[in-house]
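User: Predict the complex.
Assistant: Input components as received:
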Amino acid sequence: MCIAVPGKVVEIDGNEATVEFEGVERTVRIDFLDDVEVGDYVLNHVGQAIQVLPEEEAEERLKLFREYLDSYEEAAEQK
Amino acid sequence: MDSKKELAKSFSNKIDDKCPKDGLKALHVCGTHEQSILKHGLRSIIPGRLELKMGPGCPVCVTPAKEIDEAIWLAENDVTIATFGDMLRVPGTDKSLFDARSKGHDVRMVYSIEEAIKISNEVDEVVFFGIGFETTAPSNAAAVLNGLPNNFSILTSHRLIPPAMEALLNIEGVDFDGFIAPGHVSTIIGTKSYNVFSQKYGMPVVVSGFEALDILYALLKLTEQVDANTSKVENAYERAVNEEGNPKALEMLDKVFKTIDADWRGIGTIPGSGLEIKDEYSRYDARVKYDIDIEDSRDIHPGCMCHLILTARGKPTDCSLFAKECTPQDPRGPCMVSREGECNIWYKYGGKDRESKD
C-alpha cells in the first residue's frame, strides 16, 4: 500500500508533471513538492510525487555500503 | 566493486558479529518490507537468533469490518464506490465489496483518488473509500483542498503508524527489542516522529528503505544499537527520508483532517491513530453526507489468527487455517487478502525462507 516508485520528470504543467517510469509516461500530481524541475527524479505514490530523490547511481550506493562495512573492520582492528 | 551478493554476505557477517548471543527481536510495521524480506530470502541469510517480526503494517488488513460494511452499505444504496484493488476482497462482517459488485452494485477499482474523481462525470454519486497510512492520506487532503465535484465524497479509513507502534509497546505478549520503521511513511512524517520511542521507551528505531541491502543495512544499525545498549532514531534511508518529513504534505493533512481515536482490526481502539475530515470540509465526508445504517460488525472470524499476526504475537504458519482453508483464492481473514498482508506474502513466497534459519 505504501509502495512508491521512482521516476524522472519530463514535463511540468502547474501542479501536474509527466513522469517517466522505465519508458512509460504517466501524469503525477506534485502538490507536495516546491522546487521540482524537469530532469529531477521523484518518488511517486498513488498518483502523487512525495519526494525529490537525489540522482544517485546504484553503484554509488553500493560503494557507500562498502565504506560503511569497512568502517566496522577498522573499528574492530583498533580494539 | 562489490556485487550485491558480496555486500549482503558482508552485512550478514557483521550482523552475526554484533547480534547478542541471547538473540534479538526486530519488529517492522510495513507490508512492503515483509515482501522484500521474503522475496530476497533475508531471514535465511541473517543469524537465526535475529528474529524479524511484522506488526500491523498493512492498511488493508487493519481496516475494521465496520468500515468495509459502511462501503458495502453505500454500494447497496446506489452509490458508486471507488477504491484500491485490495479493498475489494477484504471481508467485512459477512461479505466483501467484491460480493456487492457480483450482485450488480457499482464498485470500481482505481489506482488514485484522481481516477475516482473522473468517475464523477459518469455517475450520479461516487464515494472514494480512502484507506492508507500517512503515505497515502496526503493525496486525499490535496484533492479536498483542490476542490471536489458536488457528487463526490470520501469514506475515510486512514490510520497513523506511530500511535500503532506505541500501542504495540503496551500489548501484553508483544515482545521485541527495536523497530525497523517504514521508509515511505517516514518520507511524509520524518524521523522526528519516532523520537518518543527512543526517549520515552528506550527503544531503538531505524528507518529502512526497501531493497534487500537497505534492509540489511538497517538491521545492522539496529543490531549495533542493541549491542551498544543505546536507543536512538537512525535514518538508513537517507535518499528519501529526512528529519522533518514533507512539510507541505503535513500541512495539507493538518488543514483537512483532525486526529481521532480509531479501531484497528485485530487490535482494538488506538488513541489518536485515525483521521477524520474536519467540519469545514464535511460536505466531502461520506459519513456526514449519507445516513449509513449498519448492524454490529465482526472483525475476526472463528479460527482466524489475524489478530495475533497483526500484533506480532503469531506467525502465519501458527494458524491452523493457513494454506488450508485460508488461501489467497479463498481468504478467511484480511491478512490473506491483501498483497501486503503477512499471510498472503508467506503463502506467495512459501518455503524455507519464511522463517529464520536455526
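Chain B touches chain A at residues 1-2, 4, 7, 10-11, 14, 17, 30-32, 58-60, 84, 86, 111-115, 131-133, 135-136, 138-139, 142, 146, 182, 184-185, 187-188, 213, 217, 239-240, 246, 248-249, 252, 338, 340 (CB under 8 Å).
Let me know if you want any component modeled separately.
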